Amino acid sequence: MQKKTYLCSKLRKYDGELWCYKRVFQSLNKKKMAEKTKIEKYKKSDSQSDYEKRTFVSPILKLVPKAESGRQRKITLPKYISFTLQKDKKKLLLNIEEQIGICKGKEVVLNATCNNMQTDNAAFEGWAICLKAWFPKDIETVKLSWDIPHDIKADDNRWCHYRRFVYRVLRFSEQYKWFDVSEKNRSEIYKFKQELKELKNNNFKEVPKPKVNNNRLDETTVEYILSTTLSDDVKRQFNLDFIDRQFPVGVKSGGKKFFTSNKSAIDLWGSKDNVLTIIELKYIPKGSKNKNIKVGIISELFMYSCIMRDILSGFICRPEQTPNKNEKTFYQQIDKYKNIKACMLANEYHPLVENDSVIEILNDYLKVNNQISVDFKKSRYSLDSENKINFL
Predict the structure, then answer these.
(1) 290: which residues sit within 8 A by CB, 6+ positions away?
(2) Cα separation of 280 and 269, whole Å?
(3) Could you tell me the CA-to-CA distances from 75 to 130, 247, 250, 293, 313 in Å, in that order?
(4) The CATH number of 199-391 is which of 3.40.50, 3.30.450, 3.40.1350, 3.40.190?
(5) Concatenated DSSP letters for 72-85?
(6) 215: which of 50, 273, 317, 348 lies 20 to 30 Å off by Cα?
(7) Between the CA of residue 163 and those of 98, 113, 160, 175, 256, what are the distances in Å?
(8) Whole-prediction pTM value?
(9) How many CB atoms lie within 10 A of CB 320?
């Protein structure tokens, strides 16, 4: 790949295909041009796909309740994580594989460890917990391995995603005794620990303004409604003195971006007494054909609980200032919080997340030396209008 000529970036998944935007950098006039280019579709081997379908998908489909329409729910394992069950050891092996694509005849390397954590291919916590919940007799332990990404610069946003990925692996392995990291990746964990210094949470320069859609309900609009019009209902449901939105969680190190930070934030949050409540919100519009229902809600909630715990313990320092009054009060009273209530709130869940054992497994973590306890919860709601919410 000729780095001086072009750089393939902004990769995204669309209609089952992988696409990239090719940016051409012209050294003389510095004009940029963007061209959408199809990347060769990656596919698991037929033998691996058949194995996963036979070992995991088919048995789960026999247990998952059908949808309200009477149709069989769809279960699809991510294409960039290989799942292997060692039955004699009752161990599940997860391997995040680097993918090779073709962009204009040139080879492009893609790595899901650099993706948003809620995407299927990056949400290892979600898959580990869900499969452990659905196969309690067959899976006692889980081991994760991954291909280390290449050709990523320190200031690249993908590198921030990767740091956040390793942080999640580190915290997950610390909290759950049944989860382990492959021998080939343990040096990555050790190396990452050396980078954990001078950490400080970021702040927004101004309070994020909601982009409310007046024509139809979408997730951003629902988030805003729950923190304003329906705030009393939410406060009663979660036992809160106040409810706010968009708590920033973009961590910096030595004043430089360490994790993704631009829009990284907890959807809803509030508190009462010594309990801090964080809420990961999902809203699926009625009749939606392309439902964004992911097991990644588990990964997001776990990640946010870890960051807030590290903020409360002082491992991640507070920002120097914040424009949000509730955030300012939170940091002023930070020493009073002894418990985090981490809640997922959705009007529809991924079939695998609906298993009650998911929350039980999340809450069964190692509590030794943890000054701040975390209680994971799952709530469901229905929203028929902007003025009425029902918690189910």
Answers:
(1) none
(2) 9
(3) 12, 32, 32, 11, 39
(4) 3.40.1350
(5) PPP----TTEEEEE
(6) 348
(7) 16, 9, 5, 18, 13
(8) 0.86
(9) 7
Is the model's pLDDT at 19 over the cut of 70? no
Which are the contacts of 10, defined by CB distance < 8 A and separation ≥ 6? 20, 21
Q: Are 256 and 153 in contact (CB under 8 A)?
A: no
Distance linking the first and last C-alpha atoms of the chain: 53
Name 48's Cβ contacts closer than 8 Å, sequence gap at least 6: 82
Rounded CA gap, 269 and 46, in Å? 45
Which residues lie below 8 Å from residue 371, measured CB to CB, with a gap of 6+? 312, 313, 338
Ramachandran quadrant class, 219 (left: phi over 0; alpha: psi -120 to 50; beta: rest) = alpha
CA distances, 363 to each of 27, 135, 171, 259, 286 (Å): 54, 18, 14, 26, 31
State the Cα angle at 238 between 232 and 241, rounded to 5°: 60
Tell the residue number behind the tokens 């409810």, with chain if given.
243
CA atoms of 276 and 279, how far apart (whole Å): 10
* Contact status, residue 155 vs residue 161, Cβ threshold 8 Å: no
223, 146, 229: which is closest to 181 by C-alpha? 146
**Poorest-confidence range of 96-100, 330-334, 343-347?**
96-100
Q: Cite the residue boundaries of each domain of the chain with CATH code 3.40.1350.
A: 199-391
In whole angstroms, what is the distance from residue 82 CA to residue 51 CA? 10
pLDDT digits (tens, 9 = 90+) for 65-92: 877 767 788 899 998 899 999 999 999 9
pLDDT surpassing 80 at residue 31 = no
Cα–Cα distance for residue pair 334/340, rounded to 1 Å = 12
Residue 338: per-residue pLDDT: 94
C-alpha 248/C-alpha 316 separation (Å) is 13
State whether the Cα torsion 58-296-135-68 is positive or negative: negative
